[in-house]
Design brief:
Elements lengths: L17 E2 L2 E3 L3 E5 L4 E8 L5 E8 L14 E4 L2 E4 L4 E8 L11 E10 L18 E10 L14 E5 L2 E6 L5 E8 L11 E3 L3 E6 L9 E7 L5 E7 L2
Parallel strand pairs: 3-10
Antiparallel strand pairs: 1-2, 2-4, 4-8, 5-7, 5-9, 6-8, 9-10, 11-12, 12-15, 13-14, 13-16, 16-17
């Protein structure tokens, strides 16, 4: 007789707003330095209850939640979400002094949806596949008085060297670029999204050579998860 087993399989998403049947009210979350706490709402669309576990990580998705140290506290860290019902997560800042005041800081919010074990009515149904789905969302701490984040993309500096494109981000904001295209066509030059940390420089490989003075079309993601289109001149 074969033994019953359960397989837990985690899937990772950066831009999704769901964890299996658990729906989250956003795709990224901004914690302003003048906030005492923020609330994130979860809704269970399934016809059965689920257990939702929530934690923040520093960028390593493989690190165990119990070993991660972050300056925030999530309440509750584990919650039962009833069928067709909601549950609020409260995230509170508990160590403000450890955070820089001249730039944003980034963590990742994890939501793990653990469905309940099904009751086995028949011996032949003992072999089951149980999925626990994990989603990850950007969680950004933003000090006040950094300026307007919607203007940050316009301050990026693009320099070309053949098929290499160097992007300098002198701003205090994290900037995510999804697509880069030449102005005269919409053939994308990059193969994957690019996240630029505040006050950093990154060099990427493009699919073709760019000339100095060319105009590029840059798609970036704003605070609300929407795509914004910008024009940038290459130096």
């Amino acid at each position: 007789m074969m033994k019953a087993y359960t397989l837990i399989f985690a899937l990772f998403f950066s831009f999704c707003s769901f964890a299996n049947n658990i729906i989250i009210n956003g795709t990224r979350f901004i914690f302003s330095s003048d906030d005492k706490e923020i609330t994130i709402n979860m809704t269970n669309l399934a016809d059965r209850p689920a257990i939702a576990q929530a934690w923040l990580d520093n960028g390593d998705p493989k690190e165990a939640p119990g070993t991660i140290i972050v300056p925030f506290q999530i309440s509750p860290p584990v919650a039962r979400v009833e069928a067709k019902a909601g549950q609020a997560l409260r995230i509170k800042l508990i160590d403000k002094d450890s955070l820089p005041t001249d730039r944003e800081s980034l963590w990742w919010l994890n939501i793990l949806d653990i469905p309940p074990m099904n009751k086995v009515e028949d011996e032949k149904d003992k072999n089951t596949l149980q999925l626990a789905i994990r989603s990850r969302f950007k969680f950004i701490y933003r000090p006040i008085n950094l300026g307007k984040p919607e203007l940050a993309v316009g301050q990026l500096i693009f320099k070309t060297n053949g098929k290499k494109l160097t992007i300098n981000n002198p701003t205090p904001f994290f900037i995510t670029i999804t697509k880069i295209a030449e102005n005269h066509n919409y053939l994308y030059l990059n193969s994957s999204a690019i996240m630029l940390a505040p006050k950093s420089t990154k060099t990427i490989q493009l699919d073709k050579i760019l000339k100095h003075g060319e105009t590029l079309i840059i798609d970036n993601i704003n605070d609300y998860g929407s795509i914004k289109v910008n024009k940038i001149i290459v130096k």
